[in-house]
Amino acid sequence: MRVAIIGTGYVGLTTGVCLAFIGHDVYCLDSDKSKIEALRNGRVPIFEPFLAELLEEARSNLTFTTCYEEAIPGAEVVFIAVGTPPTPSGAPNLEFLSQAARSIGQHMNSHLTVVVNKSTVPIGSGNWVDSLLRDAIDSRQNGGEHTGFAVASNPEFLREGSALHDSLYPDRIVIGADEPRALEVLYTLYRPILDQTFSAPTYLPRPETVGAVPLLSTDLASAELIKYAANAFLALKISFINEIGLVAERVGADISEVGRGIGLDSRIGPRFLSAGIGWGGSCFGKDTAALIATAGEYGLHLPIVEAARKINSRQRDRVVEKLLHELKILKGRTIGLLGLAFKPNTDDLREAPAIEIAQKLIDRGVRVKAHDPVAIDRFEREHKGMGVLLCGSACEVAEGCDALVLITEWSEYRDLEWEEIAKKMRCPIILDGRHALDAEKLSRAGLRMLSIS
Ligand code: UGA
Known about the structure:
Blueprint: E1 2-6, H1 10-21, E2 25-29, H2 33-40, H3 51-58, E3 62-65, H4 68-71, E4 77-80, H5 95-107, E5 113-117, H6 125-138, E6 149-153, H7 163-168, E7 173-177, H8 180-194, E8 215-218, H9 220-251, H10 255-263, H11 284-297, H12 303-327, E9 334-338, H13 353-363, E10 367-371, H14 376-382, E11 389-390, H15 394-398, E12 403-406, H16 418-424, E13 429-432, H17 439-444, E14 448-451
Parallel strand pairs: 1-2, 1-4, 2-3, 4-5, 5-6, 7-8, 9-10, 9-12, 10-11, 12-13, 13-14
Antiparallel strand pairs: 6-7
The structure holds uridine-5'-diphosphate-glucuronic acid.
Residues 120, 156-160, 231, 234, 238, 272-274, 276, 278-281, 283-284, 342-343 line the site of uridine-5'-diphosphate-glucuronic acid.
């Protein structure tokens, strides 16, 4: 099928490359000329494992463009995957979405184009996009004769760092559409993934447990709410374990064991129960704020979602409190951060806990050093003014430090030369913010390990 995707961020690019890989003819559009130029040359502008490899394999089915005239006419499906950054009120900024909808309406020409919201958009956006498309068609000189369209919502559940895995082997595909024709088109589009009939790339083998993928078809508003509810639930699962962590700390329980113990109950499930410094990233914070803002428009309060946000922000303060308790005076100390990205396997720094924690420490007169296996360059570009001293290795960070804090659980941090690190530090203290390190190993190396539970 002929597909156009507006926006080449994490969601748009991953979706485009995966759909091209399973055999569709995909046009990826972005207004950023340099991004499109890089993609044409096979360079992927984001750090996402195997994306460059899959793009290379799917190259013959991919066209990268900045022109709506090139991408939209003839497309059977158009995905809108543009950014919806938060505004100060918590409600998302829908400017890019509305621009995209208008431009699509100006250029679509087939009897039925299915326009799909893939960006996380407020409930009711499906109807709004519908009206923008209709206005754009009506304003065309030829009146958009023979142009027909249907709007659908197809929320994305991929995680950065495992975006391709999540797209090729999803837990479910949700399609919200009020018109049955839209559902039929999207069913055909996703069939190779739903039935798992494509040959898996060697570097992303199909997990043995993956069978046919469930398709959930709903009305527009339900699909839109599923996306927000899913992210809010995952966020509150993390905040729940962090709240229980506070109790665990007081009563002398091990929060990792508690998480395992409750997660083995199949009604609860083991994932997203890792305690620590809490969630970061561009989604949980933005989407919980947007859900609260939407509820507010209907005069509703969401105390559970609000509490999840408060607990998450308190976890960052607890890092500072722990260090203060241990070192007594923070002013003039040197503290090293291991990890800057908001999670491993990405260089994304949006809402990264490292930034918030670094700022809190700097505000207290601490000299902050940091390392990250992939996000250093991005940090330098985006947060140069903060005054964090960036280092080429974990060992270099440790040099002269009064404490280290593990912020991002990159796998390479699990097996560092801890003896060497301990020797380089002024005080051999490490705060494991992710319950990722082996306490015995660290203690043998002469390090005192603290944790945030
Ligand atoms: C999240 C959702 O998991 C995806 O399903 C969704 O599609 C995406 O948002 C989105 O809306 O676009 P993502 O933000 O990429 O994906 O990353 P996650 O793996 O969910 O991690 C989010 C944060 O939670 C990270 O900072 C991670 O370190 C933290 N986390 C995760 C914990 O603190 N504890 C856990 O047990 C799990």
